[in-house]
Amino acid sequence: xxxxxxxxxxxxxxxxxxxxxxxxxxxxxxxxxxxxxxxxxxxxxxxxxxxxxxxxxxxxxxxxxxxxxxxxxxxxxxxxxxxxxxxx
Length: 88
Hints:
With 88 residues, this protein is mainly alpha-helical. The protein has 5 helices and 2 strands.
């Protein structure tokens, strides 16, 4: 089963908490599952409800989780980092 993860800056900034961001930085698998669940897209192209996304992520293999978490990290990299000059 292929799971599509779609990250955009608006969704990331509205749904991911500071505690979750810290958990991701610490490499916590449970936090990764919970965060990825917020970005799972269904066959119809719409985001799944968080619980359904969590179930989908939970059914992944370790290799799929690794690939999805790397994909997520690449897409989210710039969205969570404030500008260098501190301007908002």
